[in-house]
Amino acid sequence: MIRFDDVTKTYMRGQRPAVENLDIEFARGEFVFLVGASGSGKSTLMRMVLKEVTPTRGTVYVAGKDLSRIPSWKVPSLRRDIGMVFQDFRLLPSKTAYQNIEFALAVIGTPRKVVRRLVPEMLEMVGLEDKGKRLPHELSGGEQQRVAIARAYVNRPSILLADEPTGNLDPATAEGILDLLAEINERGTTVVMATHDQAAVDRMQRRVVEMVGGLVVRDEAGGTYETATPVSVISGHLPDDSAHRDELPLEDEALAGGPERPAAAQTSAPRSPESSSPEAAGSTETPAEDVLEEDLIDEREAQQTREEDLFVEDEAHAEDVQGDPR
Questions:
Q1: pTM score, two decimals?
Q2: What is known about its subunit structure (predicted)?
Q3: Which domains does the chain carry?
Q4: Closest to 215 (Cα-Cα) out of 288, 269, 252
């Protein structure tokens, strides 16, 4: 369903890769948690699946298609088969819950008869059948996220990507959102969820893929959030990965720390003489990783602006579809 073949992504020349030597596959119908500290490469992995960014090296396959061979004009068609759920919901504030879901169908020209059938089905599936006329600000955070999930799933995508979908929610509400994603997965959709939610990962006991500094350091079925893996950042075995490569590269830590390191970690680039020198250790310059994180934030903001502009441009088309007497 999703495969990365020796994929490396570097945003700026001279900086370390955001994702490096990535070889991993997510099968059809899997539910996978991506875990790792901020800046570990989780969002970059998802953005490559959406073809928002392209690899510097290597090949990404989605549904058997080599994304490097898909022309830009076919990307919208690709994304119709990939649902995306965000931490901040990204609902259209001037449209009701019903209209937010309807909009996802209207912009691709779905007939009104189909729209009138699918939207109520989605509202019922997410438990909001009596709140379709409410605007986003009239809904709780959990209800807004349910609308966002319904919008992402209304086209019945084969893949659903969720980037911190429970990050802004209280534990009880987050549990309900997790149950909803599990239900969608049971219907055959592959779910890949990036998260820092330890309770969610421990409760679900699904496949867990941990990333550190752009590398996959753990890939286990029925995993938990924390691990004995010596190169884990989230379990406290390494300092935050925004700086750990200069202070304690993966290969040095693995050799010093007992269990055999994962295959992905073996590909970590060795530390250069410059980076290991006393002068480099005492340098006060901004780490390249921090610059990279700022670049990613800027790119995310730019992407969100592009999406908002697209919504504004497409609203006229959506209104035409809604007003069609057929």
A1: 0.75
A2: Homodimer. Forms a membrane-associated complex with FtsX.
A3: 2-268+290-323 (3.40.50.300)
A4: 269
